[in-house]
Amino acid sequence: MISSDVIRGYNDTIILYMLLDGESYGYEISKNIRRLSEDKYVMKETTLYSAFARLEKNGYISSLHKDGETGKRRTYYRITPDGLAYYRDKCREWQITQEVVDKFIKEA
Amino acid sequence: MISSDVIRGYNDTIILYMLLDGESYGYEISKNIRRLSEDKYVMKETTLYSAFARLEKNGYISSLHKDGETGKRRTYYRITPDGLAYYRDKCREWQITQEVVDKFIKEA
DNA sequence: CTGTCGTACTTCATCTGTCGTAGTATTGTG
DNA sequence: CACAATACTACGACAGATGAAGTACGACAG
Q1: Strands (E), B16-108
Q2: Mean pLDDT lowest among A20-24, A73-77, B1-5, B58-62
Q3: Looking at CA atoms only, how far is residue B68 from chain A in angstroms?
Q4: How far apart are CA B92 and CA B90, in angstroms?
Q5: What stretches pass through the bilayer (chains A, B) (predicted)?
Q6: Buried b (16+ CB within 10 A) or exposed e, B34-60
Q7: Which of B80, B90, B84, B68 has the alpha carbon at shortest distance from B7?
Q8: In chain C, which nucleotides are within 7 Å of a protein Cβ?
Q9: Cβ contact B50 with chain C strand, < 7 A
Q10: What is the pLDDT of residues A44-67, one digit of tens each?
């Protein structure tokens, strides 16, 4: 279990990662984050959906509504070129962040 | 230069680290963070001082006013046993956070 | 055929932490 | 004496996370 403040700066990055290999939608992304992190991080629903809104507003993802076969309404998201660029920036930033924080961590 | 959102969850931890080897005060801590991070992270004054208030409220640091020789008023802070325990928790959490975030980072 | 669970969201109000702006006061330096 | 550096404090704004609650559909058990 990771406290949210810690990972706060990477929620958007995590979501973008989930869209790297194709479109997906909220519930699926949520489950996948949980699975990938081996239950160590569970993004709250409201956090997830407000992140979608922010990411779309910034042009990092685009959405399309699929009011599918059986009536299940889902909003699918895709990463945009800008989103990909942003994701890569964040990956680079993450390396630096690790180096910096490590200086303030005393290994047990 | 690291964006604040990224390191947000570790400001308190960074400050506590600075107090591990003895008391210190705001301005000095600020300078030391900057130096230790090799200018990669500069904590804003307001962020620093509001962190002091929070840490003290939580019992992680204690303060003492030294209205020193020449009139320089400084507030010195010391880490408490609770603060030390909290710091160690955060160090452990940091290891897990790194593992988790790394799963969502695609190395260049 | 009814209740409950899982899916798939949305809305709203609140809280925490950061940050910009600004101001105060003292000490050291050219 | 002006100005930078030191050492804070106060205040208001804002972004992002969160809790609580609600909507709506399908599947499945009893």
Answers
A1: 24-25, 61-67, 73-79
A2: B1-5
A3: 29
A4: 5
A5: none
A6: eebbeeebebeeeebeebbeebbeeeb
A7: B90
A8: 7-13, 17-22, 26-28
A9: yes
A10: 999 999 999 999 999 999 999 876
Domain spans of chain B, in order of start: 4-102
Q: What is the pTM of this model?
A: 0.90
Neighbours of A106 (CB within 10 A): 9
pLDDT given for residue A95 in this prediction: 94
The span from the CA of B16 to the CA of B59, in Å, is 12
| CATH code assigned to A4-102 | 1.10.10.10
* Helix%, strand%, coil% for chain B, nearest 5: 55, 15, 30
Q: Which residues touch strand D (CB under 7 A)?
A: A 4, 8, 11, 43-47, 50-51, 54, 70-72; B 5, 25-28, 31, 45-46, 49-50, 52, 72-75
